[in-house]
Design a protein that fits this description.
Pfam family, one: DUF4143
Organism: [Clostridium] aminophilum
Number of domains: 2
Strand content: 15-25%
Radius of gyration: 22 Å
Protein name: AAA+ ATPase domain-containing protein
Oligomer: single chain
Number of helices: 17
Helix content: 25-40%
Structural class: alpha/beta
Shape: globular
Length: 410
């Protein structure tokens, strides 16, 4: 199969041309090195996966830069953060743009090193797995927000997707779309490599215990994060689970969706929800081996929600937007009802809150957006168009301010 053009490419090239350094983060195997080598073939390249290269960078940085002159692409730069101080000196000596490009799969740890050494000198971007837009060669590259303008522009490039469950089960790693790679073999190798090359450097636990932990987290994708519950299943302490969750987030395996915090929502739950970044990996770990069994399983709703959340996140990161300050969820108790009410996703933009429900149904109802009115309590914010992302065939208004959309609109 031909190379799938990544939606983030043009923005990466622009950032390289305007910044002294660029950092591209993302989980292993999402295509960081492939993209950068393809778009910046003229750059010298080294990888800190190589121990001898790391050793020279650490002990003889001047010799390292003589052997590897600028412009330079350093892969897995987080494995030798000490080099960043020397890079800071070099980039400060010149006004040239695009002197260094970095990639790394441990984004939070890497960001710490960048913020300490290269603040104001490095542009940070994130690459995720393939989006549905990329897989179907759709050029539209604007983040999802259910405004009239977005919907109108998106409709110019709509493509009918085949069975969505095939994509949910397969996952989004490029190699699965590049060659006829066996699904189980790929994910088995991925998990082994992830634990061997990333995790052993960050924890002291044995691989079997950590794999049990990975599986326990995958089984809870789309749920409110409960450290004690996971600790009980795995047989480790709650602080250990907190530390390991942080590692999963750092290495791009999970995403923690934060609750929307507003003082007037005093009955709201304050814990984050946890989502696997790749549904194929979550399916492999929880042993859903075919798309049909997944589609008809008890976890289908959570996997569907996980996939849609991931697609929305990709729409932000592929446009170079930091989604962490834009998307939230809400769950709380309303005095008028006995149970809890939830809004699956709240997208905030320009002081407007857009409530999004994610439902595995082809027959959406207006009452599915009943909780949206809670957002009217928040001062200085307006409630925008509500949307239900579901398995409906076409755009359908359920109320004047509530619309049901097929996934192809994301």
């Amino acid at each position: 199969m031909a190379y799938i053009e990544r939606a983030i490419t043009d923005i990466v090239k622009k950032r390289v041309s305007t910044s002294k350094c660029l950092l591209l983060t993302g989980a292993r195997q999402v295509g960081k090195s492939t993209l950068l080598k393809r778009q910046f073939a003229e750059y010298n390249r080294v990888t800190f996966d190589d121990k001898m290269t790391r050793l020279q960078a650490k002990e003889e940085p001047k010799l390292f830069f003589l052997n590897n002159p600028r412009p330079l692409f350093i892969d897995e730069v987080q494995k030798e953060n000490s080099i960043l101080e020397d890079i800071k000196v070099l980039v400060d000596e010149s006004d040239a743009r695009g002197q260094f490009i970095f990639s790394g799969s441990q984004k939070l740890e890497l960001m710490k090193g960048m913020s300490e050494s290269l603040a104001g000198r490095v542009s940070v971007m994130e690459l995720s797995g393939l989006s549905l837009r990329e897989i179907h060669r759709i050029k539209f590259n604007h983040h999802f927000v259910p405004t009239e303008q977005y919907i109108s522009e998106r409709e110019k490039e709509l493509t009918e997707y085949p069975d969505i469950w095939e994509f949910i089960h397969k996952g989004a790693y490029p190699e699965l779309y590049d060659v006829e790679r066996d699904w189980q073999d790929f994910y088995s190798s991925y998990v082994d490599t992830y634990i061997e090359r990333d995790i052993h450097e960050l924890i002291t636990a044995d691989s079997i215990t950590f794999l049990k932990f990975l599986t326990a987290v995958a089984a809870r994708t789309g749920e409110i994060l409960n450290y004690a519950n996971i600790a009980g299943d795995v047989g480790v302490s709650e602080p250990t689970v907190k530390s390991w969750i942080s590692i999963l987030e750092r290495t791009g395996i999970v995403y923690l969706l934060q609750p929307y915090s507003a003082g007037v929502l005093n009955r709201a739950i304050r814990k984050p929800k946890i989502y696997f970044r790749d549904t194929g990996l979550a399916c492999y770990l929880t042993r859903w081996l075919t798309s049909d069994t997944l589609k008809n399983s008890a976890v289908a709703g959570n996997m569907f929600e996980t996939y849609v959340i991931s697609e929305i996140i990709k729409s932000f990161s592929n446009e170079g937007i930091d989604y962490r300050f834009c998307i939230f969820y809400y769950r709380g108790k309303d005095k008028r009802t006995t149970g809890e009410n939830e809004i699956d996703l709240i997208i905030e933009e320009n002081g407007i809150l857009y409530p999004v429900e994610i439902k595995m149904t082809g027959n959406p109802k207006a009452q599915m957006g009943g909780t949206n009115v809670v957002l009217d309590k928040i001062p200085d914010k307006k409630r925008g168009m509500g949307v239900i992302l579901c398995l409906i065939d076409k755009k359908t208004f359920l109320r004047e301010n509530l619309i049901a959309l097929p996934l192809k609109y994301v």
